[in-house]
Design goal:
Two copies of one chain form a homodimer.
Chain A lengths: L5 H13 L3 E2 H7 L8 H13 L3 E6 L2 E6 L3 H17 L3 H10 L5 H17 L7
Antiparallel strand pairs in A: 1-3, 2-3
Helix pairs in contact in A: 1-2, 1-3
The structure holds a DNA duplex.
Chain lengths: 130, 130
DNA sequence: TCTGTTCTTTTACAAACGTAAAAGTTATTG
DNA sequence: CAATAACTTTTACGTTTGTAAAAGAACAGA
């Protein structure tokens, strides 16, 4: 999958947050506060996203309505998998260890995660990809 | 912490893999196969890493010996935390869910992770940051 | 229909990145 | 010591990224 730059990803995230195809203004409204861009800036990112196959614009009057062509979970899964591979050779435990050892994730978080994994394991055998 | 570009990170990883301060040649030897760069390319990345405070070079004869100034786990923890925040708002379960739902992590991996978390929880209460 | 407003598209430009040639310096060896 | 080999430093250049002004198209109200 094509990779996104930081800004492109922020735009895409805002669009996903809209929950449905959205126009420029709606997307802008969902952007984090530190993204107070000129209109043309945002539209340029949307154009780059279109070229990368992440959105399809559709004219509606003089406005464009943008539809996401990649699902959020698909993108996030791919990016996280790449991250995991790049930094930890694919070892999940190593990643969690790093997060814990640098105080980025608390004991409580880890416990919650453990419980989540247990429940998932119990009720979702369809995730056995081995 | 200063962020690293992809290439800079690869160089840093190679240096970490050396396990001790290392010269250009040793670092080059640890680089992944797809990084067959000219000498000056690698040295340039090392210079950029120096400017970002990640390594300190020390002349030894006409060679430079590079010492890492940032520990691997510190860097990895920070990058993973940023990743987690950026894509999942800090929710570990969401990240694991995305990895599992896109088939990037198997049921067995998840089980292993759950066991790891349990053992960590049992024997390492010093990781309680709440 | 004229004109101001709202949108988009095109063009632009500086900074960061990937990559390496050229130039300069130190070591080595015949 | 002269010539060559090994290294590093400096300079360079095309691409991608962040950001927006300028230019062009469509709409809405007087």
């Amino acid at each position: 999958m094509e990779t996104l730059s930081h800004s492109e990803e922020q735009v895409m995230t805002a669009l996903w947050d809209c929950g449905r195809p959205a126009a420029r203004r709606e997307i802008a409204a969902r952007l984090p506060a530190d993204c107070r861009w000129a209109d043309s800036t945002l539209l340029n990112f949307l154009l780059r996203l279109e070229n990368k196959g992440f959105v399809r614009p559709e004219k509606q009057g003089n406005k464009n309505i943008y539809t996401p062509l990649v699902r959020r979970i698909t993108y996030c899964g791919a990016v996280s998998a790449a991250h995991l591979q790049r930094l930890y050779g694919g070892d999940l435990r190593a990643m969690l260890g790093a997060l814990a050892d640098t105080g980025r994730v608390s004991f409580t978080d880890m416990e919650r995660l453990a419980r989540y994994l247990d429940s998932r394991a119990a009720e979702s055998p369809e995730y056995d990809y081995d």
